[in-house]
Amino acid sequence: MFSWENPDDRVAIVQMNSDLRHAQLELLSAQCATHQLRLRFSTEDIARFGQQDVLRKAIAAASGLREYYGSIEKQMPSAAGGCSFGVSTPDDDRLRQASACVLAYLREQRERYFAAGFPLSGQLKAGMQPFFSSGLLDRVRLLELKGSRVPNPGFYADAQAMGVENLPSLAHMASLTFVDVVVFNDSITDRVMFHGLVHAAQMQILGLERYAELFVRGFLRTGSHVTVPLEAHAFALDSRYAKDSADRFSVEDQIRLWVREARY
């Protein structure tokens, strides 16, 4: 067993940690590649149509790594009073740090895209007027990206390195809302626009800082962005709109109701 008091061991320990960092980066790359598979293909299709020898090798490698690192984990000393940056009990410092990253990202992207956006046309406003306030519809801008997509935030790498999984791929989302600009990766449709406007209304009513905190807290608790209450509510409302656009309701009132009931 190594001892830090032994000079030769200290050299070996430094080399070991260098190798460990390299292995961790390689594992992170594999995790990202696997996440892209998960986003695009079902497990059933992969099992049925995937190249069988490649699948077996991947499964064997993953199983071996799980067993190896699991044996190491059992021997790791417990951090006194510490808590992990996982989906169950995020500590306050890391929650604040993650919320600050999301908040800064939303503001930066708003500045990046807002000037290139365009206001809602009279026709679009007329279609959304029964559901959103005039103030919101007058303020929000829309931007359809052509030939490009919104890239993932720079802080993803740090979050993944700390063990955060299932981070959503922004390039695969139909739209992203950055404060008061809705950016579309694909073409603008009424339902996708409605969804983006719901998030703009949430940010307006909650305040951007509170929105970022609730989003991070919800993601760490549920482990998936689609089950974050803010996102789940937006999906529920755009589904209600798509089902019957003649069913008039106030999105802002629905958001305030969820705020009062502490459902976010």
Describe, in plain words, how this protein is organized in 3D.
This protein has 264 residues and is mainly α. The protein folds into two domains: 7-75; 92-260, no CATH class. The protein is built from eleven helices and four strands, in the order H-H-H-H-E-H-H-E-H-E-E-H-H-H-H. Strands 1-2-4-3 form a four-stranded mixed beta sheet. Helix 8 (190-206) crosses helix 9 (208-222). It is elongated and about 75 Å long. The termini are far apart.
Structure, briefly:
The chain has 11 helices and 4 strands, in the order ααααβααβαββαααα. The chain has 264 residues and is mainly alpha-helical.
List the helices and strands and how they pair.
Elements: H1 7-40, H2 43-49, H3 52-75, H4 92-113, E1 118-119, H5 122-128, H6 134-139, E2 141-144, H7 156-161, E3 175-178, E4 181-184, H8 190-206, H9 208-222, H10 229-243, H11 251-260
Parallel strand pairs: 2-4
Antiparallel strand pairs: 1-2, 3-4
Helix pairs in contact: 4-9, 8-9, 8-10, 8-11
Salient structural properties:
single chain, 264 residues, mainly alpha, 2 domains, 4-stranded mixed sheet, 62% helix, 5% strand
